[in-house]
Amino acid sequence: xxxxxxxxYIIIDTTTDEVILKKSVRDISDFINIIYPxxxxxxxxxxxxxxxNTYFYHCELLIKELKW
Length: 68
Description:
31% of the residues lie in helices and 28% in strands. The chain has 68 residues and is of the alpha+beta class. It has a four-stranded antiparallel beta sheet with strand order 2-1-4-3, with helices on one face. Helix 1 (25-35) packs across helix 2. It is globular, with a radius of gyration of 11 Å.
């Protein structure tokens, strides 16, 4: 398996243009909950949002599923 393909999701901070790659929806929810402790999100919510669309916004973050 190629190293790049193990990353399935990208998070872009729209205010700073910082990019973070994550491997799972749980990693995404953990990251968001650290950055925004007052606006928490569960990994189930992340999964549902990505199932409905290939991307969604949470606060200033754009979360997108990568298609390799």
